[in-house]
Structure formats: C-alpha cells, structure tokens
UniProtKB/TrEMBL annotation, chain A:
Protein name as it appears in the record: V-type proton ATPase subunit D
Subunit record text: V-ATPase is a heteromultimeric enzyme made up of two complexes: the ATP-hydrolytic V1 complex and the proton translocation V0 complex. The V1 complex consists of three catalytic AB heterodimers that form a heterohexamer, three peripheral stalks each consisting of EG heterodimers, one central rotor including subunits D and F, and the regulatory subunits C and H. The proton translocation complex V0 consists of the proton transport subunit a, a ring of proteolipid subunits c9c'', rotary subunit d, subunits e and f, and the accessory subunits ATP6AP1/Ac45 and ATP6AP2/PRR. Interacts with SNX10.
Gene Ontology biological process: cilium assembly; protein localization to cilium; synaptic vesicle lumen acidification
Organism phylogeny: Eukaryota, Metazoa, Chordata, Craniata, Vertebrata
Gene assigned in the entry: Atp6v1d
UniProt-listed InterPro entries: V_ATPase_D
UniProtKB/TrEMBL annotation, chain B:
Protein's name according to its UniProt entry: V-type proton ATPase subunit F
Gene Ontology cellular component list: clathrin-coated vesicle membrane; proton-transporting V-type ATPase, V1 domain; synaptic vesicle membrane
Stretches of the chain forming a coiled coil according to its record: none
Lineage of the species this protein comes from: Eukaryota, Metazoa, Chordata, Craniata, Vertebrata
Keywords from the UniProt entry: Hydrogen ion transport, Ion transport, Transport
Organism for this UniProt entry: Nannospalax galili (Northern Israeli blind subterranean mole rat)
C-alpha cells in the first residue's frame, strides 16, 4: 500500500472518461457508507445509554430479590435443595427476533411464558406468602435481564458493524480515491504530452516541406535562367494555332 | 426463528440459582442435563469453565446469567466469546454490582462519558 501507485491502464480519451466515472462512483460510495456509519453510531450511543441505565436498575432489582430470598428462607426454612431437585420444564423461555437498523440485523430477545408453575406447592407448609413474593421478584428480574441481554447483543453486533463500515470508509477515502486521482492525473499528462509531440512533429514536417519547396523553387529559377526549361503551352493565351487551315 | 423457544441458563451460587429457578427458568433437557450450575466453595474453575463451554455449545440456550464474582474467575473464557448466546453478569449477595468489571462495558471504554454523567 505505497503512496505512489496508480492503476495500470493505457492512456486514452476513453480511459479518461472511464476513470472519471469511477472516481464519481467511489465518492458516492464513500458518502453513502459514511451516512450508514453515522446512523449506526447514533443507534449505538442510544443503546449504550440504555444499557447503563438498565444495568443500574438491574443491580437494585437483584438486591431486592436477594432480600426477599433471605426473608423467605427465614420463614419457610431451607427450600433450596427441594427447588433444585424439582426441576423439569421451564416456564419462561425466550425467542430471538431480528431487528433491522440501517441495514444491520440485530437479534432481539423476547420472553414468553409456557406451561404452569412447577413450584406452586413449594411454600404450602410455611412461608407461602414470602415465597410468592420471592417468585414475583425473580420473575421481574428475569424480564429485566432478558431486555438487558437483547441490548447487550445489539451492542456487540453494532460495535462490529461500525468497525467494519468505518474500515471501508477509510479504505475508500485513503486508498481508492487517491489511486484513481493519480491515474487520472497520469492520463491527462500523457495525453497532453502526446498532443505536444503531435504538434511538434507537425511543425517539423511543415518546416521540412517549406525548405524542400524553397529549394525546388531555387532550382527552377536557376534552370530557367539557363534556358533549359520549356514553358508548357498556355491554352488561355491567344496564339495562332498552326493546325487551323482556314482562319 | 421465532417459533423455537430458547432457555435461560444460570451459573451462580446456591441462592442465585434457587431464586431464578423459582422464577421459572430451570429445565432438564432430554439427557437430564440441567441448564444451571450451582457453584459452591469447592467447585473448581475447570468445572465452571467446562459447564460454561457446554452451555455455549448447546443451541437451545439463548442467555447465560453468571454471577459477577464467578465471571471474574473465568474472565478469559468470557472475553473470548462473542455474540450468541448472550452472557449477562449479575451481582450476588456478597458482591454487589461493579460496573468497572463488566466485560461488555469494558469494551465500550472509550464511551464512558455517559457513565460519568450519572
């Protein structure tokens, strides 16, 4: 990627037109990509802000959920082992949908409920209300976390997309366009030089012709003076024609 | 893609996992493998890493929740991982949330001005 290269092409008027068209195309492309990069960066910043807010909120929600867990443990005893053993089907699952921003598809998570609560009977002996509150808190936490996960994946995907787009913009701006401009300049200089050469050649030929002509005339003068030259008959001059018998 | 549901996995201490199971995310798949891991004091880092990688390879898991102090232990495995499934760091009872250690926010280090405004 040195700074001096240009596209190897035979310099002609058509090549010049082609290069001009290519330059125009490269500039349009660069502007479009810049716009895309700007749109993506805007969305990126929005998402980042949202992520930070949501994370702080999540910290608080988790804390509250942990408190209610401690409360429930205090009232209902240690139900952790029971809960862990009784796992069979999940009630909360997530779906991945695609969202589109300026041509980039972002995955978005959406949670949905399915089936019944397998822990309905857990708090039946004691601490049922604390357990219910606990379940609600953690359900809320799960919803928030699903949203956070969506934001996070969008964040990462956008980050990659922005890097790629910026790389392309820079490539066009610093490599492609200068290369085309150099080629164009080269073609123009070649064409100009060729014109100058043509011009020079023509002038030289004219000079040579002039010299030859002058030389020819001088010769003619000399021969005329020496009387060797026969003037060809002039049809337009009035003279007696010998072939006519009756005049 | 919208039809098949994906699961939420949890890697955390006993309290965290219990709480989330009560929230309704726990499931055993066909081979009786759970989508959660309870990390105790004697769980080795290798076990945690193995389970994490297993979760990554399973295609029915969409999100992995992991306690932040555990995430610290397997930070290298976390950082090498990219997008699907999403990995979320959550605080635990003893270790409240620390934004500086979150692997996602660290990637956006240059744009932390929004954070400073809080």
């Amino acid at each position: 990627m040195s700074g001096k290269d240009r596209i190897e092409i035979f310099p002609s008027r058509m090549a010049q037109t082609i290069m001009k068209a290519r330059l125009k195309g490269a500039q349009t492309g660069r502007n479009l990509l810049k716009k895309k990069s700007d749109a993506l960066t805007l969305r990126f910043r929005q998402i980042l802000k949202k992520i930070i807010e949501t994370k702080m909120l999540m910290g608080e929600v988790m804390r509250e959920a942990a408190f209610s867990l401690a409360e429930a443990k205090f009232t209902a005893g240690d139900f952790s082992t029971t809960v862990i053993q009784n796992v069979n089907k999940a009630q909360v699952k997530i779906r991945a949908k695609k969202d589109n921003v300026a041509g980039v598809t972002l995955p978005v998570f959406e949670h949905y409920h399915e089936g019944t609560d397998s822990y309905e009977l857990t708090g039946l002996a004691r601490g049922g209300e604390q357990l219910a509150k606990l379940k609600r808190n953690y359900a809320k936490a799960v919803e928030l976390l699903v949203e956070l996960a969506s934001l996070q994946t969008s964040f990462v995907t956008l980050d990659e997309a922005i890097k790629v787009t910026n790389r392309r913009v820079n490539a066009i701006e610093h490599v492609i366009i200068p290369r085309i401009e150099r080629t164009l300049a080269y073609i123009i200089t070649e064409l100009d030089e060729r014109e100058r050469e043509e011009f020079y050649r023509l002038k030289k030929i004219q000079e040579k012709k002039k010299i030859l002509k002058e030389k020819g005339e001088k010769d003619l003068e000399k021969r005329r003076a020496a009387g060797e030259v026969m003037e060809p008959a002039n049809l337009l001059a009035e003279e007696k024609d010998e072939d006519l018998l009756f005049e | 893609m919208a039809g098949r549901g994906k699961l939420i996995a949890v890697i955390g201490d006993e309290d965290t996992v219990t709480g989330f199971l009560l929230g309704g995310i726990g499931e055993l798949n066909k081979n009786r493998h759970p989508n959660f891991l309870v990390v105790e004091k004697d769980t080795t880092i290798n076990e945690i890493e193995d389970t994490f990688r297993q979760f990554l390879n399973r295609d029915d898991i969409g999100i992995i929740l992991i306690n932040q102090y555990i995430a610290e232990m397997v930070r290298h495995a976390l950082d090498a991982h990219r997008s699907i499934p999403a990995v979320l760091e959550i605080p635990s009872k003893e270790h409240p949330y620390d934004a500086a250690k979150d692997s996602i926010l660290r990637r956006a280090k240059g744009m932390f001005t929004a954070e400073d405004l809080r």
